[in-house]
Each structure stands twice: as C-alpha cells, then as structure tokens.
Amino acid sequence: MKKYFPLLVLLFLSSLCFSQASKQKAPASAEILPAAYRTEVYLPLLKGKRVGIFANHTATIGKTHLVDTLQKLGIKITKAFGPEHGFRGTADAGERVDTYIDSATGIPVISLFGKKRKPTAEDLNDVDVMLIDIQDVGTRFYTFISSVQEFMEAAFENSKPLILLDRPNPNGFYVDGPVLDTAFKSFVGMQPIPTVYGMTIAEYAFMIAGEKWLSDKANEKYEYYLRAKNSKDTLFHFQVIKCANYTHNSKYVLPIKPSPNLPDMSSVYWYGSNCLFEGTVLSEGRGTDHPFAIFGHPSLPHNLFSFTPTSREGAKEPKQKDKVCYGWDLSGTNEKVLKAIDNRLQLKYLLDAYKLFPEKDSFFIRPKNGLLKSYGINRLAGNDQLIQQIRNGKTEAEIRASWQPKLDEFKKIRKRYLLYPDFD
C-alpha cells in the first residue's frame, strides 16, 4: 500500500518550526533542549483549548513540571493520562494504577496502565487538544511507547488534534537487537522493531503512523487526513515540536530518572541488554542502587560480585529479596559504560550467567501453562529463537548473525522517518 510520509513532512513543515539549517550538525557547545522548553512554538496551539495531556514526572521544563508551567501560563488542562509507574512515576513496574485526582494540581488523572490502556471517547468529551510529553529510553520493551501508540490511536479514532513534544533518546545513538516477530506481540513489544531502535518518540510516532501499524480505524482516519490535507479540518490533526540541537550522535544525559528502576545513566545504558534477565530467575538488580547494571543469583559462584536486593520505592518485592546474590556490577561513569556497551546489545553476561547457573532447566522463568510461546523471555526478546539458541550453546556471534537480515530491513524503514541527523 502506498505510504504518505513525504506528504506528512510537507503538511507539518510549518509546525516543526525548524529551517533546513537545523538539519546540520549542531555545534558541540549548543545545549540540547527538549521540545517542551520551546513554549513560544506550541503555546499558541493550546491557547483557549481544553487540553488532555499524556505525561508523567519526566515532563518538565527545568525543575518545573510542564503541567504547572502550562497552568501558570493560562492553559486549561482538563485531563491527565498516566502510563506505567503512574503520573508521578512512583509505582512499581507492572503495578496497576487507578484513576484519581492529582493532589498537586486538582486535575483528574486517568491511568492507562490499570483497567484500560487507551482513552475512551467519554474520557475525551471535555478535551479539545491532546498533548504528549514523556521521556522514553529507546528500548522496545519500555512500555511508554506502547502507551504513546494507544494515545495516538485514541486521538486519530476520535478526530482529536494531537501535539507531540519530542524529547531526546538517551539510547538513540545505535540500533541493535532482534526485530520482534509479531506472533510475540504484547504490551512490552507491540511493533516489529529491534530491541534498541534509535529513534525519538516523535520519529517513532511518525513511523508507526506512516507504516500503518496503528489500529484499523486509526489507520483509516490517518490516511483520510493526509489525503485531505488542504481541508481546514485537517490542518491541526497531528503536529510535532522538535528538540533543539539534538542529533543521533548525541549522548543525552537525562536530567531526571525516567522510572523508579532506571535511577542513573548506567541503568539506562544497560537496560537494553540486561532487561532480558527479567525473563530469568536472576535478580536484574531491582532493589539495588543500580538496577540492570547489577544482576545475579544466590546459586552463582560465590567469587563473583555480591549484593542483596531489598524492598524500596518502585521495587517493593524485587526478585531474590533479602538474599545474598552473586553476579556482576557493571555500573560506573558514563564514559566507562558507553565504552563497555560499544554501540550494541551485549549478550555476554546473559550467556555467561546461563553457563554458570547450576540448574539449567530452572534458569528461565517457566509460565504456568508451560508453553514455550508464553515464556517471559520470549516476550522480551520478541521471538522464541533466543531461548533455544542459549540452550543450544550458540555463541554471541551466531546469535547476532541471526538478527541481521530483519535488522537491516528495519534500518531502511527507520531512515524514512528521522527528523534529526543520523549517526551514520
């Protein structure tokens, strides 16, 4: 089917408010600014409108939450929608959050990680404009991008104008990992993209819309709007505000932790590689100071690094709670961690942990139904090949080679939707 992305670029060129000069590499001294900081661009689009915002604690301008800034500037926010971990970012991973009134602002907060994951038409009755501002970390299984997709679908399906304030991707400087097989589609992987996909939220949004990966109704509405671009009813349907001075060579350091178990850049950088440990009996480091940079198990050799996961905010019941575990500590300075990652997923530690684990049949968390397709490791990997490759003793090089054909195909698709200079 014909794609309409080139038309989309022309349609929203004025809303992006960047000249061709912005496509050039930014000076090293230029400060990277998330789109939320560029209030002069998007405030005119919100004036006099009732706004429904999808955001969490990362939606800030400096140290001030975007909601507070908008309210002080006279913008009327009628609804807030919160993702996993909640609007304030304090809930445990996977913890269901109910709808409530935010005590700080008095705004009704509708959870999109509780009884429902998509705003309903009723939720949007008092909303004129839908707004997105949230910090992603650039990995397929980070559920914020799943919530962004469903928020987009609600906007398109209900013909609501949508504005997306882009933010830099802290892992946007490389692309790697297996591309998800849609037979393993879940909320921790909704689209056929690799584990680390090297796109900002806005670029990803353009891709899932342009590739028609949304719901059938949303795809139909989107195609209609693109075809009817000259109609006054369609000029304010989907607009993106870009970041300033960002490129895919940038190593953007997050000013605030994006979720409770990504407290620092060590955790953010290692998350793509080591979130796979969530599908195993090993502690992935929740309940420590450096989740995903620290991981291990009581049964591993005792000459390895030792640590004890404990209950804390965002990890009330971590795996191997209060047990001494043995494994690895990969935390360190940003420079040290970036050098260790080397712009690709690192499978070494998962393979080493499996080799050292005494009870191989118990290494991967077994689902209640016992079916291979239901293993958590398969939802995270996006296929059932990785678990079999590990069990069969495949090397990292052999495993990586199996990713390459689909990874190369994805890279071609990705290029069509980039808004910023790429890393190659």
The total strand number stands at 12
CATH topology of the largest domain: Rossmann fold
Structural class, from secondary structure content?
alpha/beta
Tell me, rounded to a whole number, the average pLDDT. 89
Number of domains: 2
Total count of helical runs of at least 4 residues: 13
Q: Estimate the helix proportion, in percent.
A: 25-40%
The CATH architecture of the largest domain comes to 3-Layer(aba) Sandwich
CATH class of the largest domain: Alpha Beta
Low-confidence parts lasting 5 or more residues at pLDDT below 50? 1-29
Strand content: 5-15%
CATH superfamily membership of the largest domain, which one? Uncharacterised protein PF07075, DUF1343
Spatial gap, N to C terminus:
29 Å
Shape: globular
Order of helices and strands: HHHEEEHEEEEHEHHEHEEEHHHHH
> Strand arrangement, largest sheet?
5-6-4-1-7-8-9
Q: Could you characterize the architecture of this molecule?
A:
With 424 residues, the chain is α/β, with parallel strands linked by helices. It has two domains: 250 residues, Rossmann fold; 129 residues, Aspartate Aminotransferase, domain 1 (Alpha-Beta Complex). It is 29% helix and 11% strand. Helix 5 packs across helix 6 and helix 5 packs across helix 7. The N terminus is likely disordered.
